[in-house]
Amino acid sequence: MYIDGDTHYWPVRFLDRVKHSGRGHIEFQKGAGAMIRYGETFPGDAAAYYRDGKKIHSFSETRWNLDMHHEIMEREGFDYQVVIADNRPLIYEVDHDLGVEMARAYNDTVAEDIAGKDRFIGIAWVYLPDVDEAIRELRRAVKDLGFKGVKLMGGHENCDLDAEVLWPFYEEVCKLDVPILVHPGTRVFEAQDCHPWLVGSDRYDGFKMLATALGFPLTYMVSAARLIMSGVFDRFPTLRIAVFEGGVGWVPWLMRTLNHHTLGESPGTTSVNDFFRKRDRLKKEPSAYFDQIYVAAIAWEDYLPHIVEMWPNHNIADQGEDGDFSSGQGKNSRRQRDAAVWDGGAEAKCRGVSDTPDGRATSSNGMQEEPSCSSRTAREPSGFYGFRPILAVSSWRMKPGGRPCLERISSQPSLEPTTLILTPLSISATSAESWLGSLKTWVARMV
Q1: How many helices (H) and strands (E) does the chain have?
Q2: Nearest to 38 by CA among 76, 79, 6
Q3: Is the pLDDT of residue 153 over 80?
Q4: Which of 200, 282, 217 shows the shortest CA–CA distance to 253?
Q5: Alpha helices in 144-215 (DSSP H)
Q6: How many whole angstroms separate alpha carbon 33 and alpha carbon 42?
Q7: Contacts with 208 (C-beta within 8 Å, 6 or more apart), sequence order
Q8: 174-227 per-position pLDDT tens digit
Q9: Looking at domain 2-13+64-446, which CATH architecture does it have?
């Protein structure tokens, strides 16, 4: 099963539902929005969105035409497509009433657009600065509109994702058993170099590309660290957060440096002691909380085999919260098995990724797991979008030759059952072949 997991969607007609005077307007250009993908042209119109006297975003028809989405799905062989809100038009830096109204209008329009189209998966957008309203809209989107998750831009102003004001929102997310997709905007309006909330934004003047190249992964590192070290994941053990377009190379380093900066580990104990004196100690080693964080790999990350080696299997948490999470030794540890792209570990075990006749679960490399979840809560999350993702690879715009290689990856018997979550970046035949080779070697070594 192939799921296109990061498709930006902006149904332009949703603005007709917004009555706020600050909603802005759209200007269309007939036939000016042709999208060229590796020599293949998709003709279409173009649109530019203006608000507060500024051009917010310009985009091609593929951003709002689901028929074109469907055509691409058919050509590339995708089974499902996750419809997430486009970034720049829907942001938190707008008037409160406008933000609330745009959220409702967007969600209603998407629900109408995908009604009866089972291959599209709806994801809600909420105006997070008003947490109470965000909770109400999330509840409505999931229960009434049938959406499968919620997209956040990240935090806003001085509010990062660990902020206590957001805890009621996380509580509702866990009650509804849906994932959070985090995907910041690169900028607030088109002429801006970088969105001010991204980490390092004040250093990117004149270098727009750095908003994504550095701003995304650096921001994800800070947010992940704060979510872990603040105890948010201890408080909400079924909370699942996915981050997109930031790569996975930062994950092993962050896991290790956070492990090092804990009581009894860091040589500079003063700051660590001061930090934990003000709050309860974490229930697990920081790296163990990454079983609640889903990170999309990018196709050009040719160091992926090394990431596979360095991301430990979080199933070792089954030894109990006081177990040795770092050594990778002992009867229950399966170190170097699950990586940034694998939804294995304790989460997979609790979900029973692929139930076998004897009631055990087959994880991402075909190894059978006992269904014990002693270190998790009794509530079992249902996986992303109602599916059970195993492998997340990046590619919506796939270079020629990439698809057969990915199909060969997913057809490996020891990797079944496989679900691919793909994000809108590029993969080449060369990189896919490299991945296939490294995965074959890795699986053979671990079986």
Answers
A1: 13, 19
A2: 76
A3: yes
A4: 217
A5: 167-176, 210
A6: 9
A7: 186, 187, 193, 194
A8: 999 999 999 988 888 887 888 888 888 889 989 988 988 899 999 999 999 999
A9: Alpha-Beta Barrel (3.20)
Q: Residue 440: pLDDT above 50?
A: no
Alpha-carbon gap, residue 162 to 155, rounded angstroms? 9
For residue 33, pLDDT beyond 80: no
At 386, is the secondary structure helix, strand, or coil?
Answer: helix
> In whole angstroms, what is the distance from residue 251 CA to residue 281 CA?
22
- Please identify which residue in the block is written with the tokens 């990170």: 295
Position 139 scores a pLDDT of 98
Between CA 80 and CA 421 the distance in angstroms is: 9
Element at 332 (helix H, strand E): none
Average pLDDT over the chain, rounded to whole? Answer: 71
Q: How sure is the predictor about 21, in pLDDT bands with cuts at 50, 70 and 90? A: very high
Residue 109 identity (one-letter amino acid): T
Whole-prediction pTM: 0.72
Write out the DSSP string of 100-133: HHHHHHHHHHHHHHHTT-TTEEE-EE--TTSHHH
Place of tokens 């979900």: 351
Which residues lie across from 208 on neighbouring strands? none
From CA 343, how far away is CA 349, in angstroms rounded? 10
Side-chain-facing half-sphere of 346: CA atoms under 13 Å: 29
302: closest CA among 440, 438, 444?
A: 438
Among 189, 298, 283, residue whose Cα is nearest residue 243: 298
Cβ atoms of 392 and 297 closer than 8 Å:
yes
pLDDT of 112 > 60? The answer is: yes
Greatest mean pLDDT among 48-57, 258-267, 383-392 lies in: 48-57
* H/E run at residue 16: none
The answer on pLDDT for 162 being more than 90 is yes
Torsion on CA atoms 25, 29, 32, 33, rounded to nearest 10:
30
